[in-house]
Amino acid sequence: MPEKPNKPGRAGSLTGDSRQEAEGRASFLSNERVQKEIASMFASQRSKRARRAAAAITDEEDAAITMAAEADPDARPVDGMFSRRGRPRLASPKLSILLRLDPDVVARFRAGGDGWQTRMNKALRKAAGLD
Asked: Does residue 65 contact residue 59 with C-beta atoms inside 8 Å?
């Protein structure tokens, strides 16, 4: 017995075109990028609510919360808790410049092994009368 063609509007049946559309939508929703985008939208909604709630706190409420936290030895606020990670910044950082030198001068400093740039800096400081 031959199959009856799917009629539009018939419950539970999909034509070939609409089946492809449904499969396309399913694969679109399973895409990781889309899932991450959806998750970030919900996360931004949560952060908006948190910012609104924090903005709604009055100065008196904030002072009361801070006093309660300071009175509790287990819940003391920590200063510098969110400090930057990595190396501390130098008081006078070195400059990165382009400097053209004779090849034999560079070869002489490199022949000394690791630290040749530091030795070259010391020699330049001595020549400039900075040491």
From this structure: no
Q: pTM here?
A: 0.37
What is the C-alpha separation between 67 and 83, in angstroms, rounded? 23
Q: Structure tokens of 60?
A: 């008196």
SS3 content of the chain, % helix, strand, coil (to 5): 60, 0, 40
pLDDT in tens, 6-48: 555 555 555 555 655 655 555 555 567 766 776 666 666 667 7
d(CA 123, CA 26): 68
Write the DSSP string, 56-109: HS-HHHHHHHHHHHHHSGGG---TTTTPPPSSPPPSSPPPP------HHHHHHH
Could you tell me if residue 12 is left (phi over 0), alpha (psi between -120 and 50 degrees) or otherwise beta? left
Nearest-10 crossing angle of helices 32-56, 16-30: 50
- Give the total residue count for the chain: 131
Q: What is the pLDDT of residues 37-89, one digit of tens each?
A: 766 666 666 677 777 777 787 888 888 888 887 888 787 666 665 666 788 88
